[in-house]
Amino acid sequence: MFTRTSSSRRKTKTGRRSPLATASLILVGLLTTGGAYALFSSTATADENVAPVASQQSIDEGQKLFASNCATCHGLSAAGTADGPSLIGVGSAAVDFQVGTGRMPMALNGPQAEEKPTQFSDEQVADMAAYIASLGPGPSIPSEEYLQADGDTTNGAELFRINCAMCHNVAGAGGALTEGKFAPALDGVDSNHIYEAMLTGPQNMPVFNDMNLSPQDKADIITYLKYLENNPSPGGFELGSLGPVAEGLFIWIFGLGGIVAVTIWLTARSN
After folding, report:
1. Reported CATH class of domain 144-230
2. What is the C-alpha separation between 243 and 247, in angstroms, rounded?
3. How far apart (Å, rounded) are the C-alpha atoms in residues 87 and 74?
4. Residue 54, SS3 per DSSP
5. Which of 6, 160, 173, 208 has the fewest Cβ atoms nearer than 10 Å?
6. Which CATH architecture has domain 24-139?
């Protein structure tokens, strides 16, 4: 009787799970989940973080151009100064956008770098982009397949309204921001510069990396903007596509004002 009870107790004690087992299972689950997330993140952002291989000659030429035109503000090593931020890790896409649109070098310090005629040829811009890309990984110049404006216009319009219209207007006509800054109009902007702006977030613009908007989503937004550019308003004079507030104000001031003026003229003439 005594022996049987001791054996039963030993079996019961042996069958209990150790507190360390629960902790070990939780640790294994966390490590597995974290590893899977890291793998997915690196895969999803691979396109924007890996720049195409450039020749050493292109990099050397870009370094010379950078030293002559950009180092005053950004430093000889592109690590930044009190007058300009570090460019290490911004990638070739940022250089192609800023220099390719003439925003850099800036003509003068102000609230925002404004677009102006570029001072460099396409080859020189590519050389400077290659040099900056060689300093650290960052968003690269987009692939041509996403710049053809042959995506889904409907999806692009929806994405643009959700993510961009609050600053750029639903028709891409641009708008004013705070502290003297503004969201520029998107009519006539090159497809690659639209893509690069979404990818790098210049000025007050947020960054839309490939985990926020996939490359195809960006291509759809470009398709929508090019559709607006190539299909003018069917309703006549569009008032700059500034929206219902501006159109309503126009009607109140000029429309009703004109009606009142005609009414007064008719009454005076009858008298």
Report:
1. mainly alpha
2. 6
3. 7
4. coil
5. 6
6. Orthogonal Bundle (1.10)
